[in-house]
Amino acid sequence: MQVEFQQIHKQFGPVQALCGIDMRVESGTIHGLVGENGAGKSTLMKILTGYLTKTGGRILLDGVEVDCSDPQTAAAQGIGMLYQEPQDFPSLNVLDNFIVGRDSVAGLDRTAQRQRLGKLAERVHFSLHLSAVLEKLTIGERQQLEFLRLLGRDARVLILDEPTTGISDQQKALLFQALRQIRDEWRTIILVSHKLEEVEALCDRVTILRHGLVTGEAEAPFKVAELLSMMFDKPPSIERTEHDYQPGEEILRFSGVSANGERVGLSDCNVTINRGDIVGLAGLSGSGQGVFLRLAAGLLHARVGDLIFSGAALNRLGHREFREKGGVFLPSDRLHEGLIPGFTLRDHFALASGLSSAAAQQAAEQAIQRFHIRGTPETLAESLSGGNQQRLQLALIQANAQLVLLESPTRGLDVESGQKIWRYLRETFSGRGAIVFSSAELDEILAVANRVLVFFDGRVVRDLRADELDYEHIASAMTGK
Amino acid sequence: MSDFSLVILFASVLATAAPLIIAALGETITEKAGVINLSLDGSLLLAAMIGFMVSYETGSLIMGFAAAALTGALVAIVVGIFGIYLGLLQVAVGFALTLMCKDLAYFLGNPYSRLQGPQMLSVKIPLLSDIPFLGPVLFQQPLMVYLALLLIAAVWWYLFRTERGLELRAVGENPEAAYTRGIDPRRKQLLYTAIGGALIGIAGAAYSLGIKPGWGRPQGIEGLGWIALAIVIFGGWHPLKVALGAYLFAFLQVIGITLQGVWPSVPAQVFQVAPFPLMIFALVMINLLQRESVQGWVSAHPLLQTLIRQLQCSPPRALGKSYRPD
Amino acid sequence: MRMQGLKRHLFEIGLILGMVVLFTTLLLSLVGASPLEAFSHLFAGSLGSWAKFSRVLNVWIPLTLCSIGLLYAFRTGLWNIGVEGQVVMGAIGATAVLRLGLEASHPLFYLLAALLMGMAFAALWALFAGWLKVRGGVHEIFAGLGLNFVAMGFVLWVIFGPWKRDGIASMSGTQPFPLELWFPSLPGWRVSPFALGLTLAIILLTAWVLYRSRIGLNLDAVGRNPRAVRLFGLSPSRYMLLAIMVSGALAGLAGGLQVTGIYHRLIPSISSGYGYLGLLVVMLANFRLAPVPFIALFFAALNVGSIQLPMMMQLDSSLAGVIQGACVLSALLVFGLRTLRKRGPSDE
How many Å lie between the alpha carbon of B171 and the closest alpha carbon of chain A? Predict the structure, then answer.
């Protein structure tokens, strides 16, 4: 079935997520949809499945405009999606998960359904233990089941949103094989991915999105450099501030650390952070950077391996000890993880430093001046803009901090505020300790860091020093090349 | 203990447990769909009163039961609308309702206090009731004993053997995923909250028209709603285990009366609370067993593992959290 | 801006009261009673004389204490539904001490010690529920409910067992304590000035702790965002345990005062349902301290005023509870609609 989008718009509150997408997907092809995080890929697909409603535009299937206003109608048109977060029922068993849903075909005849599922699995060479409870399965197996379910429902348009995140190589190979097989049955497959390696291996065509707009299309065989240039903003003329890299004494060491979290987790990480380091964690979001930072901060515990911070093992210590030894962690989800909604600026200072109300008032006033926070000591954290929330988080850092861990520190900030923040961070902390930060913006990493760790699929795949930093190299490492 | 008193013991356990089972199964259905209806204790009482009142006025037991079921369903629908559609805390709404319904029952039921009204009598099933021992235990009971037994099987069947039941469990587990599969979680939740409420209402009438006939303040069933709620947890949200929990509770209650003869100084109420420490203990155990370290240790002991698999249960994942479409 | 907030507030209160009056009027008409007559009896029965008002205060004291205790737990996001049992445990602890002081020469010492012991008993009882929540992963509502039943069983056991009355044990409770072990009340008043003063002091102290002190700030932070609190170097579970212990201690104080100041013995229904009613008070106060004393007074007046309804109008005194429940449900409805409107019609 041919799918066509015409001028699709989507607005989330004040944010324009999709600004008029035109795109056509032909029958019997695997069509790649690539772009950075936040480019609008998932939003576009969720509109097709009826999970989200569009603000404007038309969707045509085989040239006929269709209404996909809720999942049931979309499913009736033959559209099925494999969501990035598995949309299944962990406490039910495999067979029941296969059956449940208004779109199910044969009702609750378990014997018949078992046979159907068995046949489907056989067709694409998957093997599943049907009476196992789903929560005991790996992400990859859960995905296989969902795939089979969509197949069994005779979905003619199959959307896969980042299907290879967190699954094993073997499962990946099986999935790819199955995808090719059903393409040859003349179904339409849309593969949402930011891993170019996969796109290259599978897709016949790709559409590239950036900031809610189509920036290009390409046919196989693809030129990676071309795709990269359409995916990311133009490689900027970066004025690099840190050129030389002279490591000082060790502050933090990961040796053989593996941990769970964020689907991909972190596998076998060996990294040493030294005094004077400004380490940028590059990688597509959810590739293990968050786990890395939270392990370092004592908020997560390693499954195996050792973490040494300031000469003490961090495995048994919690975040409290991490703080006492001069560590700081600033999460990217400021309002949900870093600040207290309902608390004023002054309350935050009182909470952070145990100051009396009057002293906290003073500290808040000083911080507002110094960090240019737009607000008063009485402003509530949730009514600050994202940038001001970040400035508040920075202002709350205790003065003796030695290791500053930052998750997307300038997310949602304009360029100038971002630069100011970096100036402050460098002046304050790089002399006496180390800064480790993750960022979705490669430019930022290249501009600020004197060392870069590249994450891919829960692993540190590159550890680059100031003189080895190169835009193309990092970008392709991020996409698994 | 003589043969005869054993018959009485088992027969009264079955009878005592019957309304409790009906109420607990109602709550099980509701909670399995992801809604926690905390108004149970109050709506049980209100339904008991309404059931008695209506059947007293109309002379019809059926009408009494129907009115009670309707009462229970209406109270549950309030919880449902406030919780599911207005996004209020289900626990808060349920709790306020439980206290209010109780007082409403006393207030409205005042004129009907201590009146002689219609009452369900035991039904002797011909032939079967003549079987020695089993006959009097199983086949000479008030109707709701049979109803409760039927209901256990029916609820189990519905939840685990029908497609609608599967949908019900799916909604309570992950309403969002259910939505992607074309199920409207909020409508389902409201529906099953109402059905659960209706069963609770029937249980209330089963008291006032059967087990503890008549109406008065106190009615003597105060607190049983909380007990039913606890039994649902104790039974791990599984209808068979919930029923087992209710029988265990009824057994302890009945044996408490017997034991009072042995230790006259200890009031029956003391025996009645015995299940609660047990319940708390079970909950702690369930939680501890889910820790990785304990699981590793357990896996070395196959016998223990089977036992634990039976104990293990987790609440429906979306329990008490109202689903909101984005 | 402030004026507007105040206006909206008054409008909401008016709306809630309007709904409650409407509902109650309909209900009374339904049973064929005159609503006006009922309202006037409720009023006269509670505020009609000093003696009656002092009776209201006797209800107000434990109800306020329980409600304030609940505020501490709610600050950290915990539903301490176990207050009811904590009141009972407090009463048991107090009784235990008073029994020791039966023949003693310093009754005042034993009275105070009884209150302290009551608080300690109840705090530990609450701590157990908190511990089950924090370490055992048992939801505090279930743990609290279970423990309420256990406390109920416990009080029955002591009344019918070890502390039974001379002669025959009965539901009427233990042997009353001699006059020396009563908290004195002023002539003509039935309320103990000590208990009244203590409650007022606790209200003020709580205002300071919750809104001015560092601990209050930390408790509040834990309730609002336990994840972020960890990043500030605080342990959410410790503060939860602290809060539920304070909650229990205040409930225990209420229980102790019931024994020493009101009943002068231990009875099975010593808690009089104040624990559960306190939850309604706090919900109606929207979890803030300032309205609590007033709502508690209103509820206490309803409770006392309704006592004469059976005699004067052949109505059941439970009308009080119906009105209280209606208040809370109307308030919830208003709050719910407010947030729904603020969020706008299902924007994505």
Answer: 9
- Domain containing A271 equals 250-326+398-478
The CATH number linked to A23 is 3.40.50.300
pLDDT digits (tens, 9 = 90+) for A223-233: 888 888 888 76
How many domains are contained in chain A? Answer: 2
A407 domain-assigned: yes
How many contacts does A have with B, using Cβ atoms within 8 A? 65
Do A216 and A292 lie in one domain? The reply is no
- Asked if C79 is an interface residue toward chain B (Cβ–Cβ < 8 A), one would say yes
Across the interface, whether the CB atoms of B182 and A81 are under 8 A apart is answered no
Distance of CA C299 to the CA centre of its chain: 11
Q: Does B182 touch chain A (CB under 8 A)?
A: yes
Nearest to A343 among C221, C234, C348 (CB): C221
Instruction: Report the residue of C76, C231, C343 to disrupt the A interface, i.e. the one with the largest count of A CBs within 10 Å.
Output: C231
Closest chain A C-alpha to C112 CA, distance in angstroms: 34
Strands B140-142 and B122-124, by their bridges, are antiparallel
Same domain, A189 and A264: no
Same domain, A269 and A162: no
ipTM, 2 dp: 0.90
B174 touches A at CB < 8 Å: yes
Q: Do the chains contact at B183 and A70, CB–CB below 8 Å?
A: no
Q: pLDDT tens-digit profile of A50-72?
A: 988 899 999 999 999 988 888 88
Please write the tens of the pLDDT for every residue from B248-293.
888 877 877 777 677 666 666 666 676 667 667 766 776 677 666 6
Say which of B170, B314, B326 has its CB closest to residue A100: B170
A-chain CB neighbours of B173 within 8 Å are 89-92
The answer to whether A131 contacts chain B (CB < 8 Å) is: no
A213 lies in the same domain as A261: no
Domain boundaries, chain C: 82-271
The length of chain C is 348
Nearest to C151 by CA among C270, C14, C29: C270
Cα torsion B123, B125, B130, B131 to 10°: value is -110
CB of C213 within 8 Å of a chain B CB? The answer is: no
Interchain CB contact of C164 with B (< 8 Å)? yes
In chain A, which residues have their Cβ closer than 8 Å to the Cβ of C348? 12, 52-53
CATH number of B3-311: 1.10.3470
| Residue B214, Ramachandran bin (φ over 0: left; ψ between -120 and 50: alpha; else beta) | left
Nearest CB to B100: which of C143, C325, C339?
Answer: C325
CB contact under 8 Å between B88 and C277, yes or no, is no
Runs of H (alpha helix) within A124-219: 139-152, 169-183, 196-202
CB contact under 8 A, B181 and A102: yes
Q: Does A118 share its domain with A259? A: no
Residue A397 to residues A186, A346, A351, A401, C314, Cα–Cα distance (Å): 58, 14, 12, 7, 68
Distance (Å, whole) CA C72 – CA C78: 9
**Residue B51: both structure tokens together:** 């059931």
Give the domain ranges of chain B.
Answer: 3-311
Exposed, middle or buried: residue B114 (CB in 10 Å: 0-12, 13-18, 19+)?
A: exposed
Strands A403-407 and A434-438: what pairing? parallel
Q: What is the pLDDT of residue A106?
A: 64
B224-234 and B185-206 helices, crossing angle to 10°? 130
* Nearest chain B Cα distance for residue A74, angstroms: 9
For A307, the token pair is 């973490």
Q: Helix, strand, coil shares of chain C as percentages rounded to 5?
A: 75, 0, 25
Residues of B within 8 A of A111 (CB-CB) are none
pLDDT class of B217 with cuts at 50, 70, 90: confident
Strand partners, A266: A259
Q: C241: helix, coil or strand? A: helix
Other C-beta atoms closer than 10 Å to the C-beta of C342 total 7
